[in-house]
Amino acid sequence: MAQCVQSVQEFIQDSFVPLVAALCSEEAERLTRRNNLSFAELVRPFCRLTSEVHMRDPNNQLHIIKNLKIAVNNIVTHPPQPGAIRKLLNDVVSVSQPAEGLVANVITAGDYDLNISDRSVKASVPWYSNWKETLMELNTSTFYSATTPWFESYRECFLQSMPASDHEFLNHYVACMLVVSSSEPEPVEQFLKLSQEQHRIQHSSEYSYPKWFIPNTLKYYVLLHDVSTGEEQRADSIYEEMKQRYGTQGCYLLKINSRVSNRGTDEQIPDPWSQYLQKNTIQNQDCYEDYTAVSSKNTDHLISDGLDSEIKDGLSNNFKTHPLQLDHPSGSLDSADYTKAAASLQDSKKSNSGTPHGACLTLTDHDRIRQFIQEFTFRGLLPHIEKTIRQLNDQLISRKGLSRSLFSATKKWFSGSKVPEKSINELKNTSGLLYPPEAPELQIRKMADLCFLVQHYELAYSCYHTAKKDFLNDQAMLYAAGALEMAAVSAFLQPGAPRPYPAHYMETAIQTYRDICKNMVLAERCVLLSAEILKSQSKYSEAAALLIRLTSEDSDLRSALLLEQAAHCFINMKSPMVRKFAFHMILAGHRFSKAGQKKHALRCYCQAMQVYKGKGWSLAEDHINFTIGRQSFTLRQLDNAVSAFRHILINDSKQPPAQQGAFLREYLYVYKNATQLSPDGPLPQLPLPYINSSATRVFFGHDRRPAEGEKQAATHISLDQEYDSESSQQWKELEEQVVSVINKGTIPSNFQPTQFCLNRYSDNSKFPLAVIEELITVEVSFRNPLKVPLLLTDLSLLWKFQPKDFNAKHDGETKEQGMCDEDMVGTEAIPEFLINSEETKVARLKLFPHQTGELHILGVVYNLGTVQGAVTLDGIDPSIGLQSGKFVSNGLSVRGRQDLEIQGPRLNNTKEEKTSIKYGPDRRLDPIITEEMPLLEVFFINFPTGLLCGEIRKAYVEFVNVSKCPLTALKVVSKHPEFFTFGGNTAVLTPLSPSASENCSAYKTVVTDPTSVRTALLSSASSADFGVGTGGSLEVIQVPLPDAVLLPGASVQLPMWLRGPDEEGVHEINFLFYYESIKRHSKMCHRVLRHTAVICTSRSLHIRATVCRSNALGDEEGRGDNMLVFVDVENINTSETGVKEFHIVQVSSNSKHWKLQKSVNISGDKDTKLASRERAKLCFKAVRCKNSEENYTFADIVFGNEQIISSTSPCADFFFQSLSSEFKRTHVQSHPHASQRAAKQSFDETVRLIQRCSEVDLNIVVLWKAYVVEDNKQLILEGQHHVALNTVGKEAFSFPQKQGFKKILGNSDWEDLEQELPETVLLKFFRPENTPVPARPTPEQLSSLIKTSLHYPESFNHSFHQKSLCLVPVTLLLSNCSQAVVDVLIDLRHKTTSSEALEIHGSFTWLGQTQYKLQLKGQEVYSLQLKACFVHTGVYNLGTPRVFAKLVDQVTLFETSQQNSMPALIIINNI
C-alpha cells in the first residue's frame, strides 16, 4: 500500500474513538454561529488530548491512555443512506488530487524509476538526472512509497460515515453534552428541556437513531458565555447554581467570543477549523444540490450541520437530520423556503471559501475550549467509562456465576487448549439472529468495545475472544464476525506484542461479512484495517491479495481504490513486482473511469504507462494511450489527448485495420477540437504519415519534352532515374574537363559541379544553385504505417524566402510563406494524395521562384484525413469514436505540418571529428535562386540504337534554346570522342556528291575512271582541320553553331556522324553539352546538359595487317624505300544479324611519310566479297612520300566504281580520332618512363635513332559495305576500320584488345596472335632513385640500319674452255634506313663455314678490294661495284658479304651485322 501520513496504530486509534453527542439550545447555537461554526465544529480541533490520562481497570490496576481523541457530533435522528454515503465518498476522492508543481515522488523498483504522483502525461517521458538525490533519499528512508491522500481521505470519511449497528457498540454515543447560553432568561430550565429531549430521543420508540452505549448516558451540562456581552457575574452565579445541582464533575462554564469584531485586523489568529470543515462543506453542498422535494413540515430537519440558523423555525429542542439524508417524506416545498435554502447554500459556499472561522475567538478562547475538553474527559467521560466497565464486569461475574473477575480469569481461559473453530462453510446462515439488549453476550461485547475505546487492548482482546466463542456457539455470524475483527485488531495493538497478529481472524470475519451477512461495508472496514496492519508488518503480498479479494462489481470507487493500493503493495515488496503494479494500476484506472473519477483514472494509466512503454508490448501501449487520450479529452486536457493519440499512431501498431481506423478518427476529432481553441496559432506538427527526410530528393529543372516521332530528346536526368555514384563521378569528371579547357587548363577555385538532383548520396555541403523562373521539384517520401489508407489534401511545401539582388549591396527582408507571396515563389499544391495501407509513396511538390534570393524549404503542410471507403472496414460502424455522428461521410481532416529535417553526413576527417560524433551540413533544401540563364534542349534525329562494329551512320542533332537569353560557347565533351563527329572544317566546304545522296551514303564519293582501279588516288588534309593537334583536349569538341550564338527560342540542326565502337556489346556513351550565357554572372558561370546514348554493336570485320621491306631497292621513280603491306580481312559477323556479305570497297592509307602506291593482288576480281567466316588477303605496295610535317597524305585504292574521298568528313574525322586515341593510349603507357630517360640523354637518342629505323608511321583504313536483308528489304550499310602499322614485320590489328578473340579467331590463329600481343604483367613498385638503364636495342632493330641489295644477272654464260676464270660484275646497293649518318664496313672475305652450304652452292671468291669503309648520310642510297670470280659452272649464292654499321661518333657498342633479306643465287653456264 501507499505511504500513509499516520502510523497504523494512530490510524486505528483515530478510527475508533468515544462518541459524544451535543444538544444545543437555539441561543447557544447563535453564539457559536458568530464564528461561522456550530458547537460541534467549534470544539472539533481541540478534541485530541495533549496529555496522558489515567484510569483504573476492574482489577484496580492503573491504566495509562495516550493521545486520546474524542468525537463530538450534533445529534442526527436519521441514519445516513447508502446512496448519500456513496456520493460523499465519491466527492471526497474527487476533491483530493495530487499537488501540481511539486517534485515528483520517484520510486526505484528493479530496472524502473517510477514517477508515482505526477498525474499528467509527462509521466511517460524519460527521467531527469536531477532526481538522483530524491531517489537516494527515498531509498534510504523508512518508507519510500508514494502517498495517496485521496485514499486516506476516503478511508477516514468511510469510517466516520459508517452507520451505527446493533451488533457492535463502537459507533454508539457514550455521553451527551447539553449546551445552553448564559444569556437565556432561564438557563436551568433550558438545561432541563434539553435533558428531557435527550431522554426522549434515547428511550422513546419514536427514534431508533442514533444509538446509545448504555441506558444511563452521561449528561454533561455546558454553560456557554459570550464574553463580549459582559454579564460575567450572571454567568458565574448560574454556574454556581449548576454546580450545586449537577456537581462540579458534571458541568462546565465555557467562555468564548472574547474578541471584539470591530478590532483592527492586524492580529492574525490561526484557523484550525478549515481542515476539518472542508469535508463537511462537500457533503452539505451536495446534499442541498440534490434535494428535489422537501416537506415544509420538516424544514427543521433540513438544516444540516454547519448552516445558518436563520431559516430554522425556532424549535427550542432542534436536532438535525443526518447530513447524508436523501430520502424525505413526500411533500411540497414552497418557493420561499426553497429560495431560502438555495440562498443559504450560496452563503455556505461563500463562507467556506472566503469567510474565516473563529473570527470572534482569541487565542485565550482557544485555550479555554481545549481546557474544557480536557476537563470534560478527565472529570466526566473517563470516570463514567471506568464506572461502566466496572458495572459491566460485575454484572458478567454475577450472571455467569464466576468466582473471580473476568480479568483475572483471562489466563485460565486462554492458556489451555483452544477449542477448534468451525469453518465458515460448516456454520448455518444465522446472520439474522438478534440478541436482546440485556443479553450477557452483548454485555461482554459492550465491555470489550469500551475497553478498546480507552486503549485497554489486553482486556478488550479477552472480552472479544470470549464473546466470539459465545457468538459462534450460538451461530450468530454477524456478531461473531464483529468479535473476530476486533479481537484481531486488539491483539495487534497490545503493547509488547504478546501474541502474533491473528490474520486468520480477519480472513474469517471478511468472509463472513461478505458471503454470509452480505454486508460489504463491514467487509470493507475489515480489509482496510487488516491491509494496513499487514503492510506495517511488510506482508505486502498478503495485503495485496486481501485488497484484490474485495474488489467487486457493486462499487467501482471502492474497487478502484483497493486495486490501486494493491498495486502499491506489489511495488513495495522486497523484490518489486513492477509489471503487477502496472497491471493493477490499469485495472484501478478502469474502475476509476467507471466511477466517474476521470482525473484519477488518467493518473493511474499514466503511471502504468511508465512500465509498459518501450517494452514491445504494443497492444498494451495502444490501449493505455487510447484511454489516456479519452480521459484527457474528457478533462479538456486537449494537448495531452493529442499527444496520447499521436503515440498510438506513430508506433508500429499491430492492431487490426478497423481498430486503427477508429484510433485515427478519434485522433482527428480530438486534434480538431484542440486546434479550434487556438485557430490563429502556428500550425501544429502532424504524426502521420511518416516522412523519410533523408530520402528527400530535390530536382532543379523543368520536365523535358518527350520524343516526337524520329526525334529523341536528350536523356539528361530526371527523378525517375536511380542514383549511380560511378555515373555521377563520370559526369563530374567530364564537367571538370570542359571547365579546365575553357579556363586554359585550370579549374577555378569557386567551381561547383552542376548537380541537377540532390539526394542522400550527393554532396550537399554547398548551397545548390537554382535559376529564376525555373521549376524546383522536391520529392518527399511518405510512409503510411497504418493498415488504413490516409488521404492528404491540399499538400504543398512550406518555405521561407529572403530576396537578394546578387549584383546589389543590400538584402531584402525574409518572407515566410503566405497568401500574398505567390509573386516571390509560386507554390503548387497537390489537391489529393492517397497513401494506401502500409504503403511508401513519393510526392513531387513544386516551387516556381520569381525572384533571386535565398530559399529555405522548411517542410510540408497538408490536411490529414481518411477516405470514405476506409471508415467501414470489416463491418465496423463508421461513427465509432468520441462523439458519434461528428464525422462527415468522407472522414474528418485536420490541417497541420511536418518539418523536413535532414541530418548531414557524419564528419570523419580530423582527429576531433573521429573521436566525437559530429555531422556536417545538408543544404539540399536551401537553394540559392540566381539570375536568368539560357536553357538548352537537345534532340537527336535518326539516332541509331544498333550498329555494326566500325559502321558509319549519319544522324542529325537539333539544338533549341528554350530560355529568354542567348546561349553561346556550346561544346560537347565525351569519354568516347571516337564515336561521333560533327565534321571537320572541310565538311562545310565539301557538299555531298549527287551519287552519295542517291545511295544515302555518309561519305563524299567521286566516280572513278576504270583505268585507275587499284592504283592510288592521292589527296591531303591537315590534322588541324579535324581538331587534332591544336593543343586542346581531344574529348572537348566545339559544336559548330552558326555565328557561335543560339538566340532565345531559336533552334538549329547539325549533322552528326556516328561510328560503331570496335568492341561488340552494349555501350553507354555519355555526352555532356556545355554552354554559357553571353552575360557573365557571379553565381552561375555555365550550364550543362547530359545525354547517355546506348548503342548495341555486333561483329563485322576483323583486320590484321603487316608491313615488310621490299627487296627492290628502287621504285619506278628510281627512289628507294618501298614496302609491301599485307592486309588480312576476315568476316567474323554471325548471320543472326542479317548481314548477307561484306564488300571491301576501298583501302586507304594515311600517313605523313608513306602512301599506298598500288594493289598487287594477283586475283583479277574487281570486288572483294566476304560471306560469313570468309577471309581475304590483300597486298599493297607502299612507297615513301614527300616529307610533310603538317599535312597527312591520303592514298585511296578503290576496288569499286566510286572513290570515297578519305581526306574529308566523316572518314578523316574518325581516322584522326582513332589516331589520337591510339596516340593517347601509347603516350600514357610510355609516360611513367619519361623521368628515367632524362638520365642519359645522348645514350637514349642513339637508341631512339636505331629503333626508328624499324618504325613506320602508316595507317590503313579499310572501307566496306555490308548488305543486310531486313524485312525482305536489302539495306546497304557502310563503315571503316583502322589499322595502325608502327613496326616493320609486326602484325597490327583493327581491334587491339585481347578479350574475346580466342573464340572469334580459333585456337591456331589465337596462338599466333598471342605471341604478338604484349603479356599482362604484375604491377611492380620501384623507387625512383634506382632508375634502370634503358634496354639495348634488339638485334632485329640493329640489323635494320642498312638495307642491302645485290644487282647481278640471274644467269651468266661463260666459256671456261677459252678462259678458266669467270668474272661477273655485281652491284651492291646500300640504303641508309635511318635519318642519321652511318659508318658502314663491308667485308667480302666472309666464308661460309657450313658444309651444307658448300655442297649446295659451291664456292667462289671476290676479286679486288675485299673490305670497304663508307659513310652514308641519312636516307642515302650508295652503289658499290664488285666482281665475283667463278672457276666452274654451277649455282652460287652471292649473298656472302658481311655488312657492319654503326652510328657516327658512337662507340662500337651498337655495331652489328646487317642481314640480307634473302639468298642471291646466280647460275654460271658453260658455253
Task: Explain what this protein looks like in three dimensions.
This protein has 1471 residues and is α+β, with helices and mostly antiparallel strands. Helices cover 31% and strands 25% of the residues. It contains 35 helices and 57 strands. Strands 12, 24, 26, 28, 30, 33, 38, 40, 42, 44 and 45 form an 11-stranded antiparallel β-sheet that branches. Helix 8 links the parallel strand 8 (218-226) and strand 9 (251-256). Helix 13 (440-453) packs antiparallel against helix 14 and helix 23 runs antiparallel to helix 24 (657-677). 40% of the residues are buried. Residues 117-145, 281-353, 402-430, 870-889, 986-998, 1228-1239, 1298-1321 and 1326-1334 have low confidence and may be disordered.
Which features would summarize this protein structure in a list?
alpha+beta, eleven-stranded antiparallel β-sheet, seven-stranded mixed β-sheet, 25% strand
Helix segment tally? 35
> Which structural class do you get from the secondary structure elements?
alpha+beta
Average pLDDT over all residues? 78
Number of strands: 57
Largest sheet: 11 strands, antiparallel
Coarse shape: rod-shaped
Fraction in beta strands: 25-35%
Radius of gyration: 60 Å
**How many angstroms does the end-to-end distance come to?**
148 Å
Ranges where pLDDT stays below 50 over 5 or more residues in a row are 117-145, 281-353, 402-430, 870-889, 986-998, 1228-1239, 1298-1321, 1326-1334
Query: How helical, in percent, are the residues?
Result: 25-40%
